[in-house]
């Protein structure tokens, strides 16, 4: 049975509440025109939650800086939120127990916001990974995965499918490869996932250099 720590429990609750709110908003409230974001008024619409909390491309008229924070609490479907929250529930409590509530919260937010910034940088300056908008906690979750792999590289994690134990240091590469194979078309923000990993790596490395209770 999973034992959720305070921050992990709160994060899961917030994500579930926002997911349910988005579903209700799409069912009982008028749709919001997002076509104008791309210079095509009336060409598309979405529920209130996704229309305002998603991270829109900086080239569009709908981008707002606050979306770098809000996008990680919005998800595109049940399977999207289910696997993100399941990963958080499995690995998050171990890191939160080890680091403490404050440091874990900082780590999660830095990885999530950093993932969004990284994706924008790749799109703006390198012309790769173009996206219209982005949702989901995946960047933060990949950061959790990377942090877990760095802190407890030899800890074995029991996979669900197939039901075999895998060391954390290998799990990072396995999930990264699976993520790309499941959607090589670019509909998934692969660079945002990579951004979460990159920010996690540098943050954990910096904390290790500080010594003490990193």
UniProtKB/TrEMBL annotation:
Keywords on record: Hydrolase, Membrane, Protease, Transmembrane, Transmembrane helix
SUPFAM superfamilies: Rhomboid-like (SSF144091)
Topology relative to the membrane: Multi-pass membrane protein
GO MF terms, alphabetically ordered: peptidase activity
Keyword Translocase: no
Major location (coarse): membrane
Taxonomy, superkingdom: Bacteria
GO biological process, any: proteolysis
Subcellular location field: Membrane
Parts of the chain that traverse the membrane: 12-32, 68-92, 104-122, 134-152, 164-182, 188-207
Peptidase S54 rhomboid domain location: 65-204
Short name of any one Pfam family annotated for the protein: Rhomboid
Protein name: Rhomboid family intramembrane serine protease
């Amino acid at each position: 049975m999973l034992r959720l720590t305070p921050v992990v429990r709160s994060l899961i609750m917030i994500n579930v509440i926002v997911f349910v709110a988005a579903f209700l908003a799409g069912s009982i409230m008028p749709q919001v025109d997002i076509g104008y974001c791309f210079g095509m008024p009336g060409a598309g619409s979405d529920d209130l939650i996704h229309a305002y909390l998603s991270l829109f491309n900086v080239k569009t008229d709908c981008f707002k800086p606050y979306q770098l924070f809000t996008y990680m609490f919005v998800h595109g479907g049940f399977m999207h939120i289910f696997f993100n929250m399941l990963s958080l529930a499995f690995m998050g409590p171990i890191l939160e127990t080890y680091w403490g509530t404050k440091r874990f919260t900082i780590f999660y937010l830095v990885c999530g916001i950093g993932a969004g910034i990284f994706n924008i940088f790749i799109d703006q300056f390198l012309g790769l990974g173009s996206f219209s908008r982005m949702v989901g906690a995946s960047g933060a979750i990949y950061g959790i995965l990377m942090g877990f792999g760095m802190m407890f590289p030899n800890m074995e994690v029991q996979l669900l499918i197939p039901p075999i134990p895998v060391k954390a240091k290998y799990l990072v590469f396995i999930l990264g490869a699976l993520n790309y194979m499941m959607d090589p078309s670019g509909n998934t923000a692969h660079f945002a996932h990579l951004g979460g990993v990159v920010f996690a790596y540098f943050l954990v490395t910096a904390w290790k250099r500080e010594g003490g209770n990193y």
